Amino acid sequence: LPWAPQASDGIAAIAPSPTGGVFLGVPYGPTSPPTVNGVTRAGIWEIDAAGVVTPFTAEAVAATINLLERAPNGALLVSGATAFAGKVARVGLAAMDVNTNALLPAAVTVTAAVGPPSVRHVVAQGGTLYLSGLFDQVNGQARAGVAAVDAATGTLLPWQPAGIWVFSLDF
Description:
It contains no helices and 17 strands. By secondary structure, the chain is an all-beta fold.
């Protein structure tokens, strides 16, 4: 196939874009700052259906991008061990408007006693985002690797199943 984006440091995450292409998350690595098809960006690129880098410029960067996911409202969810968006620290999950590239107010902060905290998977159902990853707190409250948050605000919800360090959620 002619579609073959070349990333300097590998591709860590992928999500559909509203233009029919995809968003790619490329981690900072040995060739930092990373490039895709020779274009240097801060961790996130949009590639059109023909494999061409679009002018999209995300205000989100991350030392490690673990996840790119589209939320029910169309926002791009970005997770990394340490994510920054528009110079605002986000350790957990940040949401971006894909039309304006602006950081949205919804944010989820995760912490972990062991290892770098991260959100690894997100499942959206209705107005709820179910998260799994390496964390023991979400927004300052105890959660053992799984949590549910309000998709619009990032507010932690009371859902708290038993479990620890769950890395996958499938509904």
